Amino acid sequence: MSESKGKIAVLTSGGDAPGMNAAIRAVVRTGIARGYEVYGVRRGYNGILNKELSLMTFHDVSEKLQHGGTFLFTARSAEFGEEAGKQKAAGICKELGIEALIVIGGDGSFTGAKNLSKYGVNVIGIPGTIDLDIAYTEYTIGFDTAVNTAMEAIDRLRETSNSHERCSVVEVMGRSAGYIALWCGIANGAEQIILPEKFDNNYDKLIEQIRNNRKSGMTHQIIINAEGIGHSYGLAKRIEEATGIETRATILGHLQRGGSPTARDRVCASVMGAYAVDTIVKGGRNRLIGYKNGHVYDIDIEEAFSIQKSIDDYEYEVAQILDARCDYSK
Q1: φ, ψ for residue 12 (rounded to 5)?
Q2: Mind spelling out the 3-state secondary structure of 31-95?
């Protein structure tokens, strides 16, 4: 057996996202194929502090990519949030001889990675979040599965809303980003979409449009409400009191994070995971992996953090035209 090129480690951090297991699998198998020892870190950054690392084999990641969640687990770490905790984690990485740490997660996880890089740890990030809110990449692992899960649930809600001739307020995840809400709004043909990036708190205009829709013959209506707006139960009550239309709120919540990942998430996660290892092979330091113009690429972590992201104006305009509702951004 040839001598190992070195040690790399992989962890998942922050909220789980379908496809994370596929990314871990790709990191492990590609790492082994490239001659590295690959260690799995359990429970995110907390696992580094507690030295919960184990050497992974080719077979340790078998039968994993079709499952949601993360088999390495994820956890918050108050200790890592402190400067002393970051220094300790960096020291442990050096003590264990970790050449590079691959972090699969969202913007919070990448902030932790960037902090570790300042103490000499070579970090490589893979975007794993259902929110699609990371600016430097056009795609994040888990988004497609989350949107499809929400879409199927909203299709079912529309059927019962139609039966009862009611208005349904459906809250989808995304924290302060409205990408899941926008995509579900288009995919489900929602009558209204409320996005944190576009909504100006003009609820009177929203309610008036609901009245007008009912007058025009709509027997039921679906309102997609982004998590960044929230207060869906209060909104449903407000609509019912103002219009007399029976209104119910449904918060889809964490079911959007679960379930078997779609083909897109499995493939994207696998390619990104392999690319992360090959970035290390090429000597890359402190890089984030992403998709741009249909291709996987890597970018300096500091540069990535300087990029801003916003809702696609044309997609939003299309949603308004197709759903025949008011433009709440005006």
Answers
A1: -115, 140
A2: HHHCCCEEEEECCHHHHHHCCCEEECCHHHHCCCCCCCCCCCCCCCCHHHHCHHHHHHHHHHHHH
- CA dist., res. 243 & res. 124, Å (int): 52
256 by Cβ neighbours in 10 Å (0-12 / 13-18 / 19+) ranks as buried
Q: What pLDDT is attached to residue 330?
A: 41
Which residue in the list 16, 60, 107, 131 is annotated as catalytic? 131
**Residue 131 a catalytic site member:** yes
At 98, which helix (H) or strand (E)?
strand 98-105
Dist CA 276 CA 273 (whole Å)? 5
Q: Report pLDDT digits (tens) over 113-156.
A: 999 999 999 999 999 999 999 999 999 999 999 999 999 999 99
Residue of 137, 93, 96, 135 whose CA lies nearest to 118:
93
Answer for the pair 21, 62: CB distance below 8 angstroms, yes or no. Answer: no
Amino acid 76: pLDDT: 87
Beta strands in 135-229 (DSSP E): 167-172, 192-194, 221-226
Position 169 pLDDT exceeds 60: yes
- Which residue's structure tokens are 């084999």? 57
Position 324 scores a pLDDT of 60
Q: Is a pLDDT exceeding 80 seen at residue 325? A: no
Give the Cα separation of 170 and 233 in Å (integer): 10
| Angstrom distance (rounded) from CA 61 to CA 185 | 36
Q: Kindly report the pTM of this predicted structure.
A: 0.95
Strand 167-172 and strand 247-251: the pairing is: parallel
Question: Amino acid identity, residue 210?
Answer: I
